[in-house]
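F.,

This is the one I mentioned.
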């Protein structure tokens, strides 16, 4: 299965596109995505909503875990928020495969600001289905 075909499929994710998330890097078991914090992403305290930070990490998680071509779906994700970022900040999320099994896989996810400040740290586990990414409707 072509990594380029998988990349094209991931780049069409409607929710990630809605948030302005960009897929910067994709290789087997690894991905890096980015977004710029916009005004509509702030919470009542004037900092990025936790859901935005989680969504950025989740987009990296989805890309890395599906990079092998086998459709993988999240079983569990835990997140620790460590710092806030200001309006206009460029944030990056990087997902790295820590363990790849036949039916499950474990990933480390880090969200950082452009200056290297660690914004959030996550761990995620996926279930690897018997389907392929490219056999999904609309592939």
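My design for it:
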């Amino acid at each position: 299965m072509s990594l380029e075909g998988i990349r094209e499929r991931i780049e069409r994710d409607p929710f990630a596109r809605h948030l302005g998330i960009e897929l910067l890097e994709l290789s087997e078991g690894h991905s890096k995505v980015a977004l710029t914090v916009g005004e509509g992403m702030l919470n009542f305290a004037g900092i990025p909503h936790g859901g935005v930070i989680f969504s950025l990490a989740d987009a990296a998680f989805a890309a890395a875990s599906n990079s092998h071509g086998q459709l993988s779906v999240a079983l569990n994700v835990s997140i620790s928020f460590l710092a806030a970022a200001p309006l206009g900040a460029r944030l990056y999320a990087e997902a790295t495969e820590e363990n790849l099994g036949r039916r499950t896989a474990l990933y480390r996810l880090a969200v950082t600001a452009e200056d290297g400040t660690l914004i959030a740290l996550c761990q995620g586990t996926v279930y690897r289905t018997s389907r392929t990414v490219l056999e999904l409707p609309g592939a």
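The mean pLDDT is 95.

Talk soon.
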